[in-house]
Amino acid sequence: WQGELHIRTLGHRALYQWVSISEMEAFRRKDRSYVCIASDISELKHNEVRLNELAHYDSLTGLPNRLQLGKDLRTAISRANRSRDSFAVLFIDIDNFKLINDSFGHEVGDEVLKFFTGKLQSLMRESDTLARNSGDEFVALLEGDIEAVDAQQFAMRVLRTLESPFLYTDQKINISA
Fold it and tell me: Which long-range contacts (CB under 8 A, 24 or more apart) does 14-20 make?
């Protein structure tokens, strides 16, 4: 037998082992012996998890990326078809983001993106998904029998939330979408 074992230590640390067990015949025919060879593959498994995160989540904001959003949208469509619910997809783009990057630098631009992400997340419900589609483009997926008026109200809340400027050191940066 060979296979992968997931082991939890007493300290709750996860260990992964690749184990191979082979049967050996002893000198007397009726006795059997077994040889077990185990290799620690914990680092490999942790790297696998990290690669999966990098493939599906934005490293700056921690939000699902375009690839993960596609999966989430397919799931939302299937769920809506089964339950006869509706959902809404809103594309949200930061206005003049290139100007922010050019005027204040990319470090400040990154902080603006994180600030913007926090503002949007504060408006989301547990059942909703916020994803970063690309540079300054976000997608809100609102699920659970959403009507057009609900999506419109959400969009208005987004715009109202952005009325207060982003403060970076002593700089005030106005953001709109």
Answer: 14/42, 14/45, 15/40, 15/42, 16/40, 16/41, 16/42, 16/44, 16/45, 17/41
104, amino acid identity:
F
At 17, list the tokens: 């082992």
Q: Which of 136, 145, 150, 170 is catalytic?
A: 136
- The partner residues of 14 in beta bridges, in order of sequence, read 8
Single-letter residue type at 13: R
Q: Distance of CA 4 to CAs 10, 13, 45, 53, 100, Å? A: 19, 16, 11, 21, 50
Q: Round to whole Å and give the CA distance between 41 and 102.
A: 45
- What is the maximum span of the chain, computed from C-alpha positions, in angstroms? 85
Handedness of CA 56, 83, 140, 161 (dihedral sign): negative
DSSP-derived 3-state class of residue 121:
helix
Look up tokens 């060979």; give the residue.
2
What's the CA gap between 31 and 35, in Å, rounded? 14
Q: What number of CA atoms fall less than 13 Å from residue 168's CA on the CB side?
A: 19
User: What residues in the chain have per-residue pLDDT under 70?
Assistant: 26-30
In the chain the first and final C-alpha atoms are separated, in Å, by 58
| Residue 136 among the catalytic residues | yes
Outline where the chain has alpha helix (H).
42-56, 66-83, 97-104, 106-123, 148-161
